[in-house]
Amino acid sequence: MSAAPATADRPIAVRRRRAEELRARHPFADEVLVLYVALLEAWGAVGATPSDPQDAASWAADHVLPVVIEATLAAGPPALRDAVRDRPETVLADWLTGATLDPVDRYLARASLAPVLEALGERAGDACVPGDAAELCPRCGGLPQLSCLAASGQSLVSGPRSLLCARCGSSWTCSRSVCPACGEDEETRLSVYSEEWHGPVSGRADDGNGRPVFPHLRIVGCSTCDRYLIEIDLARDPRAVPEVDELAALPLDLYAADRGLTKVTPNLMGF
Question: How far apart are alpha carbons 71 and 81 in whole angstroms?
């Protein structure tokens, strides 16, 4: 076994702090974020990775899956607590091959393998089978989970766009004028939905003072494939932690569903 950092680029403490901030700000996301914080604690206790990336699934089944189930039983919603019992360990290997899994199996596989793949770093690709989409993670071949705009440091100038991998947690650059799911680059087929530009999401979705709940988040969708991602703009909120903020964007996911859009990859919690 080789020693491993707690996470890839953002340590567990950073993610936990952001999750607690968002819990206080967005009560509707409390259930999701309570479970996420419990998973962060479980991941922090793992502390090692398999020496051979091809052993990732079996190693995670032995060392991570038990603490993920324990965290879920302690902090998960009742329906999930009942559902995670007696699930086959083979779902972990299935996630690495890109197989279609039901929501509970996908949750267990992702929660068990995420810290392992992040810790493997550049070797994560040796544990995975590439998927089939327009934009795939150059490290492991996984699908994107979200889109992120970096702060440019200049007023009125947007920073470069990157995508975050749903499987290994690494990121890569992507043109803002292309759909990550199907490769569509016709501007009229690409849509952006945000509270500021198109009114409040899900009724009067503001903080009571007319301000949007998610000023730094928006939906980027494609009418060719009817897929979407949540996009985080770090220029609007430099404190954002993309993978945590996306978990709290439940009203945006509901709005996208109402528009007939399907997320490229459901997040860890299935949204």
Answer: 9
DSSP 93-113: HHHHHT----HHHHHHHHHHH
- The CATH class, in words, for 144-263 is alpha beta
Q: Say whether 261 sits in a helix, a strand or coil.
A: coil
Distance CA 55, CA 171 (A): 23
Strand, coil or helix: 144: strand
pLDDT value of position 9: 58
Given the structure tokens 């419990």, which residue do they identify? 38
Which helix (H) or strand (E) covers residue 65, if one does?
Answer: helix 65-75
Measure Cα distances from 196 to 212, 220, 234 in Å.
Answer: 7, 14, 16
Whole-number Cα distances in Å, 93 to 5, 129, 246: 23, 10, 26
Domain ranges of the chain: 2-125, 144-263
Backbone angles phi, psi at 158, to 5 degrees: -80, 145
Phi then psi for residue 153, to 5 deg, are: 85, 0
Tens of pLDDT along 177-186?
Answer: 999 999 999 9
With CA atoms as reference, report the closest residue to 170 among 118, 233, 115, 246.
118
Res 134: pLDDT: 75
Cβ neighbours of 156 (radius 10 Å): 5
Residue 93: half-sphere exposure toward Cβ, Cα within 13 Å = 8
